[in-house]
């Protein structure tokens, strides 16, 4: 695939998440985004020597059927209910309810409803003569998550409710 892109002086546009900058909760989601971020930067630098371009679009939290908080919490509750009692004890009595409450507050504050900025970034990344290496999309990503990722860990932990 890369050979074809090189022959065409083409470009690759990856879409992942602003979560590649800051893990604002636990689990396996954010480590994968950090990995994609590193892979993307490495590949972009390699491809630059051949005149090819690689861009990444990093959206914040957008209100879509995939990000439906009620659906996500229902799926998490099913997993939580299947966990052995000794594992639940390690997390503590009110862990699930506390985590659910935190996620609901986050959804109310941060969800972007208009997806058109993401589409505009995609169009620019695909058609521009000089596309950006990174596109941070969404008000929450631009004004909160991205700046927060550059702050001290103690501030990040406080803002993410993990202090």
TrEMBL record:
InterPro entries per the UniProt record, alphabetical: NAD(P)-bd_dom_sf, SDR_fam
Pfam family name, one: adh_short
GO terms of molecular function: oxidoreductase activity
Membrane-spanning parts: none
Swiss-Prot/TrEMBL GO biological process terms: steroid metabolic process
Source domain of life: Eukaryota
Matches recorded under Gene3D superfamilies: NAD(P)-binding Rossmann-like Domain
Signal peptide: none
Family: Belongs to the short-chain dehydrogenases/reductases (SDR) family.
Name this polypeptide is given: Dehydrogenase/reductase (SDR family) member 9
Taxonomic source organism: Columba livia
């Amino acid at each position: 695939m890369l050979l074809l892109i090189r022959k065409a002086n083409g470009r690759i546009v990856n879409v992942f998440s602003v979560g590649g900058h800051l893990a604002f909760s636990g689990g396996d989601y954010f480590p994968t985004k950090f990995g994609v971020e590193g892979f993307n930067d490495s590949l972009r630098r390699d491809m630059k020597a051949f005149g090819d371009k690689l861009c990444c679009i990093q959206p914040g939290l957008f209100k879509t059927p995939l990000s439906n908080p009620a659906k996500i919490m229902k799926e998490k509750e099913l997993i939580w209910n299947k966990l052995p009692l000794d594992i639940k004890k390690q997390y503590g009595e009110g862990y699930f309810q506390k985590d659910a409450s935190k996620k609901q507050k986050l959804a109310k504050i941060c969800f972007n409803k208009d997806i058109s900025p993401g589409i505009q970034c995609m169009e620019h990344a695909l058609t521009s003569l000089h596309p950006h290496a990174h596109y941070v999309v969404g008000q929450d990503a631009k004004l909160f998550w991205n700046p927060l990722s550059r702050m001290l860990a103690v501030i990040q932990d406080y803002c993410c409710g993990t202090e």
